[in-house]
Design brief:
Number of domains: 2
CATH topology of the largest domain: Rossmann fold
Order of helices and strands: HHEEEHEHEHHHEHEEHEEEHEHHHHHH
Strand order of the largest sheet: 9-8-7-6-10-11-12
Largest sheet: 7 strands, mixed
Shape: globular
Distance between the termini: 40 Å
Structural class: alpha/beta
Strand content: 5-15%
CATH class of the largest domain: Alpha Beta
CATH architecture of the largest domain: 3-Layer(aba) Sandwich
Helix content: 40-55%
Length: 471
């Protein structure tokens, strides 16, 4: 997509920015500064792969320094290019602003297909990339904090953290140089499912807002709503799981090999098990097979969550989408043309830069954990349990009644790290949804994406004004 000469992903982001900027009070110069990528590092470095030396192309872009450190993932893909990395870095700036995470946006990429390398070779490439970032001062707990993205995960993050620590001996906060690490290496519990859980919390809050549901002719709450999810990767699987557990009906699932649909509902775990044993979701008992994966998105449902690829809903298929709510789990699954078509139809589009910000929100919690050198809940879990126990005993003594064993466990439970992470994420997604909604009402618009950009531009603009960096 970003390889085509005529379409620049970064220009697409700028177009959305410009549309929203007309609704803000900032002078042109400040808007130009917010929009610009501050630092772009393009590098080529040699790595010995087997008998030969390969020259690897890689990037790290820091879009905004209005808050430090900068934050954003590193992707390993043959599609990595400067335009894509710049666009994703810009979106990270706006994403962090929307969910009140005090970071500037950044993004990184290495132009390789990770499937073509052994773990040992990937480790060599990753460590060399990390050492280049250290050399150029493009990484550090107060400078720039990478995270996983396409083609990378906790393993790569632990290699980066180790390389950084070895090149910065004695730096007490070294683990805070990267997030998405394994829990044993300073990671935080709840990071794996964070993005999917954030998608669920965001759409649940929309569904709980009576006025918004009335406008599109749906009842409040997510229970009983029919949901189609595209993509059973980390984001799609966890989003589907949380909707399923909340009483929604998963009627359709799509993967690259095709899609399945059953109006009565699909058992998510059974589908996952079926795919594991057969290599495909097709042929799932009781479901209708849809050979063309994208046609799954056009089936009847209330909520559609594209959580796989960019540009899957575009001018050619948007008018056939039946969902009233489209939640962007992936980055950029709808083109600007699709936005226009669906908004005219009266659908609500919940934009990626808000909806999939669960990952960066929980990354922020991990970074805080690394700087504080103590896991969440360690200081107050027992205190809470003892206090709850004392209150429960008093109430039981006064009423002469006792609660059941299950109720007792629920009432006495003190918060673990994962409880606090979920709670912090839930609060973030609910608060940010209402900030965006207020911007929509204030500017009398139905376009949530533009409203989200307005919220982001306002926050970054104020930060620049207060920094006083315009002499």
């Amino acid at each position: 997509m970003s390889n085509t000469a005529h379409y620049s992903f970064f220009q697409g982001v700028e177009r959305n920015f410009d549309k929203a900027a007309t609704h803000t009070r900032f002078e042109k110069g400040i808007l130009e500064q917010i929009k610009a990528c501050n630092s772009v590092l393009q590098m080529k470095f040699p790595v010995r792969i087997g008998e030969k030396i390969e020259v690897v192309e890689a990037y790290r872009v820091q879009h905004s320094h209005h808050k430090l450190p900068c934050k954003g993932g590193i992707r390993y893909s043959m599609d990595v290019n400067q335009d894509e990395v710049m666009a994703l870095a810009a979106l990270m700036t706006y994403k962090c602003a929307i969910v009140n995470v005090p970071f500037g946006g950044a993004k990184g990429g290495i132009k390789i297909n990770p499937k073509n390398y052994t773990p040992f070779e990937l480790e060599k490439i990753t460590r060399r990339y990390a050492s280049e970032l250290v050399k150029k001062n493009f990484i550090g707990p107060g400078i720039d904090v990478p995270a996983p993205d396409y083609g990378t995960g906790a393993r790569e993050m632990s290699w980066i953290a180790d390389t950084y620590a070895s090149l910065r001996p004695g730096e007490i906060d070294a683990l805070g140089c990267v997030t998405g690490k394994p829990v044993s290496q300073g990671g935080v519990r709840g990071r794996t499912e964070a993005t999917g859980l954030g998608v669920f919390y965001g759409i649940r809050e929309l569904c709980n807002t009576a006025e918004d549901m009335k406008n599109i002719g749906l009842t409040t709450g997510v229970a009983g709503k029919k949901v189609i999810v595209q993509g059973l990767g980390n984001v799609g699987y966890h989003a589907a799981k949380f909707f399923y557990e909340a009483g929604s009906i998963i009627v359709g699932l799509a993967e690259y090999e095709g899609g399945i649909y059953n109006e009565a509902g699909l058992d998510l775990e059974a589908v996952v098990a079926h795919r594991k044993s057969t290599g495909s979701i097709l042929g799932f008992p009781g479901a209708t097979d849809i050979k063309n994966s994208l046609a799954t998105l056009e089936q009847p449902c209330d909520i559609l969550i594209p959580a796989a690829l960019e540009n899957v809903i575009n001018a050619s298929n948007a008018d056939r989408i039946q969902a009233k709510i489209i939640g962007e789990g992936a980055n950029g699954p709808l083109t600007p043309e699709a936005d226009e078509i669906l908004l005219k139809k009266g659908a609500i589009i919940v934009p990626d830069m808000y909806l999939n910000a669960g990952g960066v929100t929980v990354s922020y919690f991990e970074w805080l954990k690394n700087l504080s050198h103590v896991r969440f809940g360690r200081m107050d879990k027992r205190f809470s349990e003892n206090q709850n126990n004392a209150i429960l005993k008093s109430v039981e003594g006064l009423t002469g009644k006792t609660v059941t064993e299950i109720e007792r466990r629920q009432l006495l439970h003190g918060p673990d790290e994962v409880d606090l992470v979920y709670s912090g994420l839930e609060d973030t997604m609910i608060g940010s949804y209402h900030e965006i909604r207020e911007a929509m009402l204030k500017h009398n618009m139905t376009d949530m994406r533009t409203a989200a950009f307005i919220v982001a531009i306002d926050k970054v603009g104020v930060a620049y004004e207060e920094l006083g960096i315009f002499p």
